[in-house]
Every structure is written in structure tokens, then in C-alpha cells.
Amino acid sequence: MQVQSQINRNVITLKGSAQTVAEFFKFGVNNILYQRGVYPEEAFEAKKQYGLSLWQTTDEKLNQYLTGVLTQTRAWLEEGCLRQLVLVITEAGTKEVLERWTFDIDTNKDVISGSGPLPDKPEKEITSEIQAIMRQITASVTFLPLLETRCTIDILVYTTSLDSLPEEWEDSAPKTIANAEIVSLRGFSTKVHGVKAMVAYKAPCDDIL
Questions:
Q1: pLDDT (tens digit, 9 = 90+) per residue, 103-126?
Q2: What's 11's DSSP letter?
Q3: Bridge partners (DSSP) listed for residue 82
Q4: Helix axis angle, 123-139 relative to 14-35, nearest 10°?
Q5: pLDDT (tens digit per residue) in 53-88
Q6: Beta-carbon neighbour count of residue 184 at 10 Å?
Q7: 8-66 pLDDT per residue, tens
Q8: In whole angstroms, what is the distance from residue 30 CA to residue 115 CA?
Q9: Would you tell me how many other CB atoms lie within 10 Å of the CB of residue 102?
Q10: Which domain holds residue 125?
Q11: What are φ and ψ of residue 187, in 5° steps?
Q12: Per the domain annotation, does 21 fall within a domain?
């Protein structure tokens, strides 16, 4: 019975995986916004997650925005149609895109269709993989250019074909960065969803000769 119980705890369901990935997006986006100084330090409070001390916003409007995005994101993860989530950081005045944090999502089609068995993976292993990404995000300040102007954010979501968009969503330009510097980050997998991360950023003018 003990062995069987351990196996059951390691089985990854579609809803459980969607919850894990959506929660990662929540903490990941907040961590980026804090580390990059997009919002003031006093707009965040420390939270313990994944065995790490991470920062979560206390700004009511930002929380409402993120909650709305991530609630819909979780639904699309459960449907198996989410392909990519992108956090775009833009200079407020010029609307120039300064950073583009991209999270590619790969979905186990057999689980979505119900044609294959549910995979299993220890929660500890998934947590360890997520820890590695969070640490990279925290360390990003060592190589990313300082954001010296007031910035705004957008979250872009790419899906497979949808019959219709939710009312509060709209089509958007990709908001890319010309001649961007790109740094690949670590990824993690629940065996239902796999996430690969990268950041593209505008190179400092001194580096463009």
C-alpha cells in the first residue's frame, strides 16, 4: 500500500499540470517585474515558494491584471491550446520594446486526447527544475541592461486556433525587438506540459558599432 500511495502522488493529471504551470507564470512574472525594477520595491512583498523567497506584487491593479491573464491561461493549458506566453517590457514614453520574456509551452497530446496513460514525475523534481529558472531570473540583473526609464508591460498569449477570443482579449502585434540579444534560460516539465524560457533584450547603444 505504501508503494501504491507513492505512485499515486507522482501521477500528473492535466488539471494538476495546468495549475503548476499557471502558478509558475504567476511567480515568474512577478519575479521578473521586481528584479527588473518595472514597479517600485514597495509594491512587492516576499513570499516563500519553491523553497525560495520570491517577490509578489501588492499593487491592486497589477494583481487584477495578472489574475485575469493567468486564469484564462490556466484554462487554455487545460484545453491543450496554449503555445506561448510572452511578457513584454516597453518604454512608457516611446513605446519601444526593451525586453521580451518568452515561455514556450509543449503539450503532451496523448494526455489531452485521453489516448495515453497519465505520466508520473516526482513533485520534488519539478520543483527543483522551477527553482533553477527562478534563480536565473533573479540573476538576470547581472547581464541585462539597466531599465532607466518608466516602463509598462503587456502579456501576449499565443494559442492554437480558437473559435473566438474572450471578450476582454484582443489581437496584438508581436512587439518584437530588432537585432535583439537573446539568452536562453532553463526549462521544466511536468510531462504533461513542458516550458522553455528565454529573454530577448535591446542591446545597449555602446555595443552596437
A1: 999 999 999 888 888 899 999 999
A2: B
A3: 159
A4: 20
A5: 999 999 999 999 999 999 999 999 999 999 999 999
A6: 11
A7: 568 899 999 999 999 999 999 999 999 999 999 999 999 999 999 999 999 999 999 99
A8: 36
A9: 19
A10: 2-204
A11: -130, 175
A12: yes
Residue 209 lies in a domain: no
* HSE, side-chain direction, 13 A CA sphere, residue 35: 21
Say which residues have a Cβ less than 8 Å from residue 34's Cβ, sequence separation at least 6: 41, 44, 55, 57
| C-alpha pair distances (Å), 136 with each of 149, 181, 199 | 23, 16, 11
Q: How far apart are CA 25 and CA 49, in angstroms?
A: 13
Instruction: Report the candidate in 167, 105, 140, 133 with the shortest Cα–Cα distance to residue 33.
Output: 140
The secondary structure of 87-127 as a DSSP string is EEEEETTT--EEEEEEEEEEE-HHHHHT-SPPPB--HHHHH
Q: Tell me, what amino acid is at 89?
A: I
Rounded CA separation 78/179 (Å): 35
Contact 112, 193 (CB under 8 A): no
If one counts the domains in the chain, the total is: 1
Cell numbers for 60, please give them.
491592486
* CA–CA distance, 186 with 134 (Å, rounded to integer): 9
39 is a domain residue: yes
Place of cell 520543483: 127
* Rounded distance between C-alpha atoms, residue 63 and residue 69, angstroms: 10
Any domain includes 200: yes
CATH code (residue 102): 3.30.900.10
